[in-house]
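Re: weekly structure request thread

Next one in the queue (362 aa):
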Amino acid sequence: MAALVAAALIFAAVEVLQHWTTDVYSITPGNATPVARLVKIEGVATNPHHDKIMLTDVYLSSLTAWQWIAAQFQSHVQFVNADELVEPGVPTSELDAQGFLEMSDAKQAAEVAAFRALGWRVPSTPNGTVITAVIAGSPASRAKLRVGDRIEGVDGTAIRSSCQLISYVHNLAPRTVLDLRVERVMISSTGVLSYRRASIVRLVTSAVPAGMTLADCGSATSEARSYVGVALEDGFAYSLPAKVSIDTADIGGPSAGLAMTLTLVNELSGGSLTGHHVIAATGTMAPNGEVGPVGGVEEKAVAVARAGASYFIVPLGDGNLAAARAADQPGLKILAVTSLGEALRDLRELGGVRPVPLTKPS
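Done, posted below.
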């Protein structure tokens, strides 16, 4: 009888733990995917070789108490609190949209950086400011603005940058009515962003919440009076010499930027960029070729080793090199870089060729 009571209590405890949601997320090894098969380029010559350059992702999972306990006995698991994943006041429900926006930005930067590295001139045009986060309960939230929406005007004035909008709002009195001209984003279930024709969204500012410090772009001489409740990034349109599409269905985040850029350079040039080695890469990519740090590098190293990569190129900064080495994957050699140029140099040292575009840049 005592054994039955004990078993019933254990069963009840497990049931409670399985439905008790924590504020902890786990990061675990995901997939390593060859990028070339995801890429389509139209308008310039491409190289139909079979070099393998892989992007890699991780699984980010919200944990119940039971899952948290179980994960303590697994290897290569990183635990992250919810407040480390989003800015203060931003709900974790925005994580998917933020990830898909970051991937969209990463693809744009990869395309620009690749063409520029091969000698093309790729002009850019500012086209507003893009919302990257919306604080819960803020004026922006009440106006139903969303992550990915592009603001291109306010009260009839064209907006070309984040700082322009921030400066416009800075000295307004609380409860000022703003008419924002917004291109509303639509994000598909697989993460593809598209935009509706711009329309007017009316928003009423509020007083700045106590204890909150707002961005002032370095030009303000006084504390901000009005508050909208968004984080912003500058938007740009680029004039590319070809049409490029990269199918990253269901993959979010910015960390595939370097792998996508290397793949595009490889596709657009003659010879083998990799020296026919199996290469994996992670790192953000800026349009000017700078490579930035990312998260989950130890777990990504496990994923690429399982996929058969010989070399893993990672960002040098923010402990990424140490994290990749900590994965301790036999046979996987780690290379650390801060730029696309360094990555191309390292590949040449492995036997790859200097990239020469198949179509002469104009």
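The radius of gyration is 23 Å. The mean pLDDT is 92.
Next request, please.
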